[in-house]
Amino acid sequence: MDLQDADDLIIRRMPAGQEKFVVIGDLEGWGYANSDIRAYLGALSILQDYYPERLGKLFIVHAPYIFMAVWKIVYPFIDDNTKKKIVFVENKKLKSTLLQDIDESQIPEIYGGKLPLAPIQDS
């Protein structure tokens, strides 16, 4: 499943009247082999060009040092409105930061919430 298919699936599953979604991007285990800058720019283009107002917030958790180096290259290509929606979360403040924007019932258990994780599948 590519990024656009995943976005389409998320939008189809949104309740009627809900316009935005929140993403928790867990980068634990992310390394140099994952550093495909063209893919990141493509993903940003999809979000910014096709779903400019759908992203409510993107929480990035467990970001390793190498990711931050790549982030400095990608950051200038991000639209200013999108930049405001990206939050890097400190490990020590993970649950408290997520609780500022997400109800505890909707935070995955692995981040201290009450929502069991389930794989995304086409329906």
Automatic annotation (TrEMBL):
CRAL-TRIO domain: residues covered: 1-119
CDD domains noted in UniProt: SEC14 (cd00170)
Keyword 4Fe-4S annotated: no
Keywords of the record: Membrane, Transmembrane, Transmembrane helix
Xref: Pfam families: CRAL_TRIO
InterPro entries tied to this protein: CRAL-TRIO_dom (IPR001251), CRAL-TRIO_dom_sf (IPR036865)
Lineage: superkingdom: Eukaryota
Keyword Mitochondrion in annotation: no
TM spans (from-to): 59-78
Name under which the protein is recorded: CRAL-TRIO domain-containing protein
Organism from which the protein derives: Camellia sinensis var. sinensis
Taxon lineage: Eukaryota, Viridiplantae, Streptophyta, Embryophyta, Tracheophyta
